[in-house]
Amino acid sequence: MIYRNKTEAYWEPLLTIARDELGIHSFDPMGKPSADIRMCRVEDIGRALERAYDLGLMVGHTVTRAGCVNGECA
Length: 74
Prior knowledge:
- It is built from two helices and no strands.
- It is mainly alpha-helical.
- The chain has a domain at 1-24 and 34-59.
- Helix 1 (11-22) runs antiparallel to helix 2 (42-69).
- The protein is elongated, with a radius of gyration of 16 Å.
- The mean pLDDT is 83.
């Protein structure tokens, strides 16, 4: 998987989650295909997904509240 736009706001938080929960320090290919394959425990993947989900909820809530403050809520 190749990620082309690394300037998106979500990039750094997702990399932090991957590093903390899965020991992944970069989403860039390492060169050798075998270096890009990693064993992860299912509970670690679940924890990483849960953190990413929580982050999405928090960002969505923040954006919604900011919109309401600016009078964009119906």
